[in-house]
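Technical appendix A lists one of the benchmark inputs used to test multi-chain prediction within the project. The record comprises four sequence entries:
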Amino acid sequence: MLDRSHLLVVRTIEQQGSLTAAARQLCLTQSALSHTIRKLETHLGTAIWLREGRQLRLTPAGRYLLGLANRLLPQLEYAEARLRQFARGERGTLRIGMECHPCYQWLINVISPFLSAWPDVDVDVKQKFLFGGIGALLEHEIDLLVTPDPFNKAGLKFEPVFDFEQILVLSASHRLAGQFYLNAEDLRDEVLLTYPVSVDRLDIYTQFLTPAGIVPRLHKTCESTDVMLQLVSSGRGVAPFPAWLAETYQERLNLALVRLGQSGIHKQIFLGIRESDQALDYLRAFIDSARE
Amino acid sequence: MLDRSHLLVVRTIEQQGSLTAAARQLCLTQSALSHTIRKLETHLGTAIWLREGRQLRLTPAGRYLLGLANRLLPQLEYAEARLRQFARGERGTLRIGMECHPCYQWLINVISPFLSAWPDVDVDVKQKFLFGGIGALLEHEIDLLVTPDPFNKAGLKFEPVFDFEQILVLSASHRLAGQFYLNAEDLRDEVLLTYPVSVDRLDIYTQFLTPAGIVPRLHKTCESTDVMLQLVSSGRGVAPFPAWLAETYQERLNLALVRLGQSGIHKQIFLGIRESDQALDYLRAFIDSARE
DNA sequence: CGCTTACATTACATTTATTCATGGATAGCC
DNA sequence: GGCTATCCATGAATAAATGTAATGTAAGCG
């Protein structure tokens, strides 16, 4: 099998100009190298060097091999350096899973200082999971889950990092815009806009509409935050949103923010990790910086 | 040292899904592989697989290694296939050196059928040599030399492949255009155009002007065949050329071709190779097809 | 011509890889 | 829940590879 060591031999002999010098550089005896190159040639079935007097000169096959060596060896050397970074915990990959649509905006703010602080950690964000966020975490499809729904399961650990209130966003000219808070009945004749997730994962249903037995006039879904808020702004519907996110759009789109229920819907964002990853310092650092 | 075999192990375990299956595929015992991976991890100083129950799962470092394996292993496998071609004499590199400027046109015609007949031989044409064409051949800088000057030296072999007459190209309206042949004196007042090579390698000097003690009014050089013949066509000078090459331009540029001396300058193109390469079938084939 | 340098070869030593035999752990199955 | 098949780990024994020392042979150089 054509091996890394063979490529190294070809490169070193060419670099040093002689087998003896190459042997010195490789910390081997001249004899050992002589054995090695003979075996390589026997194995490949073709001459790699021409013995001309006391010179070794590459054959065409040898020149090809040299080219290969010059191409592949640096890649292997780079890979080793990188693996040393892994070994020292400097290098890693943080695959983040999102189970919370609007959190994307928040995540961006957390990721960007993290990227500066940990230049050798690659960050990857995923949003679709075959078996849900928890499944993705357990299956090692992701390393960190951003979710409003912690799920206490052996081997996983969740930490709250962010409290917020879920409010309803309305056009400023909407008839309900002036209210201090809304009751479920107020939404009976409204068009409700949400991200396209199942109803049992929408707090406005589970904590507000469903308990009161109310169904809105129409429920539409929309993938994009911007588009959804544009629709709200133009009076085409109302949408539940985290207050902090809605506020960033409020001025620009002329929106009104109204509490859902007398005491409001209060939520938390959790970061979930595998217990076995607790020791990873860059993961720890990410969670700490997310908590601010 | 991170070795090819390690990459193969990483790839195979991932492909087969288990260490036992991978061992089967690699024709090893499960134990051997277990030892191997442990040693690899010890050496790298970082875990590559997580042992979860009876499953092996890649760590981030392991995933990196897998990526490396998927990138490098195919290259090594391709290289081995190619080296087998070298071993069977199917694959080679033919580096051709040219010591004869106008022959370039002729060479193109020989090379193109050769490339079709020997799809696995790479052809490379060089024109500049530190120690001349013969030196380049001896130094293995090239494998084949196209030259009008054979040089009998031990270890080299020259074969004539092509006879031609060197004539003088003139504008059709030139005062000498009608002559059947020219004497050296006729060039005393002419501008002589040649390729930029030393005078002792120009036959028009060595075989024509110098013996008669004549020097042309002006000697200009030009790299390109096309430009040189354009200059001739516009009456800016006269140029020595192989007849066969001048003929291909004659009509288009309205040129006249006149013999140099009563019996003309007759030349041959030789192909030179190293004797040690005589057995290479693709080299043999090239020379045979060049002889037509 | 003889000295130095360079690669090859032989016989032997050492290191490394592999196997064999065995044990512990886990997932699936009655 | 206990049985069983499967999977990975381990330690000692063994096979294979890689390496060394010593020596040989040939080429360049003064």
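Chain A has ten helices and twelve strands. The radius of gyration of chain A is 31 Å. Comparable benchmark entries are summarised in Table A2.
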